[in-house]
UniProtKB/TrEMBL annotation:
EC number(s) per entry: 6.3.5.4
Top-tier EC class: ligase
Catalytic activity: L-aspartate + L-glutamine + ATP + H2O = L-asparagine + L-glutamate + AMP + diphosphate + H(+)
Residue(s) at site: Important for beta-aspartyl-AMP intermediate formation: E386
Single biological process term from Gene Ontology: asparagine biosynthetic process
Taxonomic superkingdom: Bacteria
Pfam families: Asn_synthase, GATase_7
Keyword Ligase: yes
Gene Ontology MF: a single term: ATP binding
This protein's pathway: Amino-acid biosynthesis; L-asparagine biosynthesis; L-asparagine from L-aspartate (L-Gln route): step 1/1
Domain Glutamine amidotransferase type-2: start-end pairs: 2-224
Homology family: Belongs to the asparagine synthetase family.
Protein name (Swiss-Prot/TrEMBL): asparagine synthase (glutamine-hydrolyzing)
Amino acid sequence: MSGIGGFFHPAKDYMEQREYCEGLLDRFRRTLKHRGPDDSGTFLSSHCGLARTWLAVSDTKNGHEPVQLERDGRRMTLVHDGEIYNKKELARQLAKDGASWLSFDSFPSEGQILLAGFFQYGPEFISQVNGIFAIALYDEKQKCLYLFRDRCGAKPLFYCEEDGGLFFSSEIKGLFAMPGITPSLDRNGLNEVFSLGPARTPGSGVFCGIKEVLPAHFLTVCKDSATDHCYWTLKSRPHEDDLKTTVEKTAFLIQDAVIRQIEADVPICSFLSGGIDSSIVSSICARELKKRGKRLTTYSFDFKDNDKNFRSNAFQPSLDRPYVEKMAAYLDSDHHFLECTSAAQADGLYGSIKAHDLPNMADIDSSLLYFCSLVGKEHSVALTGECADEIFGGYPWFHKEECLTARTFPWTMDLNARKILLKDDFIEYLDMDGYVQETWQRSAEETPLLEGESETEKNRRIISWLNLKWFMQTLLNRMDRDGSSASLAARVPFADHRVIEYLWNVPWEMKTAGGVVKGLLREASKGLLPEEVLWRRKSPYPKTYDKGYEALLASRLRQIMDDPSSPILEFLDKKKVEMFLESPSDYGRPWYGQLMAAPQMIAYMIQLDFWLRTYL
């Protein structure tokens, strides 16, 4: 894991202000140090500056960047964030294709392999790379900067244009550390946080002028142009494998993805919730490490006194701990039960804003941020079970007719929950319904449909597309920022693009083999888990049911509403807020995805106020 940042201007000569520009690169290093506290480096030429901070989990001996390659009058320089999972195959292919002229003292680092690949094959080399990454490549002869982002968007990369040049950074805070780049919002930005948030439109940085390189895209920025290229997309075609073959291929792809992501020069751990997804990842990790004479460390997350406060509902039918205990015993893992108090969760709302630079998933984020801070004290690499529900159809909206036919984002079907606290004139100004509908329509129309599918399967394919492009992106953002804030590299094996590609065309009756939610995944994982875990009903990331936590949030929101300097007063209706705070909470009604309507919406408003204060 790393933080990268830099700038490019084809008409300026940065060497004329060398000391000043080197100072700007040092700002990037200081601002992004939490993403990589182990090492840092910079590069400055006439038209380009690059900076990188590094968390040493792989290539610990020779992973320093920027890396540079010069031959036949041509020079390229590269920095990257992330991890490459097929670097051995790439290195062999480079040697086979005549790149033996590249000399390395030892097996090349990820950065060296990437740089050699681009030198040998050009920017199209990116389509051969399997991993999670954000890459900046400068071709000095061509005077071109390339910005690449991985297929799923697991690693962030923001940019903005300023005075004819371009600045980029792993996190928005890196851009705001640059002179002349200041935060501001327009109506679109307000709609992103009030109407869509914590999701956001792909490519949007919410703030005016801030954009994000799209997943599976790269930008080419040269003297006369800036061009966006898509190097990978899903294609719909008939699925020709029978169920047995589908199960076998699915099992292979998942296990191969996990085994590739175990590789590190430091000890790894895994998050273990007791649900099927994290249990599968942990089981494969434990088996592979056992072959190497090592024992897996696992961590589970919960809330203090949740065993007393828990109330079963449609979204969270059972407590996790009994299943965690079964899995930890089954794996013989070195397991650690981590708990978060209500006060720590509430206090973490502010820290998660600092980690994301944007409003996020409220206490779902603040608690994960807290847990990552604990895990990060002991480990630098963690494997997680994120993204399986998006790929295998685990969420309720894949199964409900009203969601399939809603013609809106299925995780935010009722905008009334979002309007309930807002001033009437602000609701009218935003035109929330129109913004959401237009955004949904534009994204839904991008879905690669398969000719001849029924209307139901067409709708389900659209929902699958939206899940991959929107909902999964929100979870990947959460995992990256919360992990990186604790210098913890979080790996997500289910988001391997080979898994996504294959499962995209598997028909629904196979995904729900045996009439069971995620039946295909369960069939592909037989022998990896105890039966009671393998067939356990889905339970999402844990939430606290402590009434004291909700009272704490209500008290903090009232303080905000009573403070004339609170920036959110411009948008919230005091009477509506007080009425909402006095109403009984509905813990089973979702506000965003599977987030509870009352406590998490209060937490989100607290975050919004802090965000507006932080960025003036």
